[in-house]
Write a structure and sequence with these properties.
Blueprint lengths: L2 H13 L3 E2 L6 E2 L3 H27 L4 H15 L3 H16 L5 H26 L3 H9 L4 H31 L11 H12 L3 H37 L1
Antiparallel strand pairs: 1-2
Helix pairs in contact: 1-2, 1-8, 1-9, 2-3, 2-5, 2-8, 3-5, 4-5, 5-7, 6-7, 7-9, 8-9
């Protein structure tokens, strides 16, 4: 066994050659596990708001609002993430006239790809509520937007938490696809060290798997605590 190789390269797995200074955003050219976390967090944050907008647009009765959301959701969900990454990476220079950095490309693709799935989660969560909720809200004098904001969405989002977490865990694991474009995230650091050492493949990839498991386990654990907390609040309100 060659765990000493893992020990010697562990900081490289975590940080790579990330540069740190006192100029915002403080971390420049993130690499390793840190890069995977940055991709996951920004992807999750962006996908939530994109998906929330797309899901609500798909529920609209106005065709010019609904159909663009339907086209976006169905087209992206029918496309492999790897193909979407290549598509954006090679299409961006044609549209903008300049090459888009690989890190930025993958981050944007994660937002767009996961946002389509979040949109379906939002649509299903809203439709799962009894129709009487909206009718009661409107009869109390609230507009449709106010009823959706203050009555429907708070209840629906609470029920969507398990589906959100499953999708976000999947996104976290998909950050490994950034290595295809040469982004030095966690998987890429494992490849680099494995190619250099040649004698510790088992130890290296066990370590990489453990780091991915750690961040995914933290997400699922937090979601379980959040669900339990919301359930207590709901029971207390009753």
């Amino acid at each position: 066994m060659h765990w000493d190789i893992v020990y010697d390269n562990f900081l490289y797995f975590l940080w790579g050659n990330t540069s740190v200074d006192w100029v915002f955003p403080f971390f420049h050219r993130p690499e390793g596990f840190f890069a995977a976390i940055i991709l996951a967090i920004t992807g999750i944050f962006g996908a939530f708001w994109i998906g929330l907008a797309a899901g609500l647009m798909r529920l609209s009765k106005r065709w010019w609002v609904k159909y663009p959301a339907v086209a976006y959701i169905e087209m992206i969900r029918g496309m492999p993430l790897l193909l979407l990454i290549f598509w954006f990476y090679y299409l961006a220079p044609v549209i903008t006239g300049q090459t888009m950095p690989a890190f930025t490309t993958t981050m944007f693709c994660f937002m767009v790809f996961t946002g389509a799935y979040v949109g379906e989660i939002v649509r299903a969560g809203v439709l799962a509520l009894p129709k009487g909720q909206m009718e009661a809200s409107r009869s109390s004098g609230l507009s449709h937007v106010q009823a959706m904001r203050f009555v429907i969405l708070p209840q629906a989002l609470r029920n969507m938490i398990p589906s959100f977490v499953n999708q976000f865990v999947s996104l976290t694991k998909d950050t490994s696809l950034a290595a295809i474009l040469g982004v030095i995230e966690l998987t890429r650091t494992g490849v680099q060290v494995d190619n250099r050492e040649m004698v510790a493949s088992f130890e290296i990839w066990i370590t990489i798997a453990a780091l991915y498991f750690l961040i995914c386990y933290m997400l699922t654990s937090y979601s379980r605590r959040l669900e339990a907390q919301l359930s207590r609040y709901q029971a207390r309100d009753r």
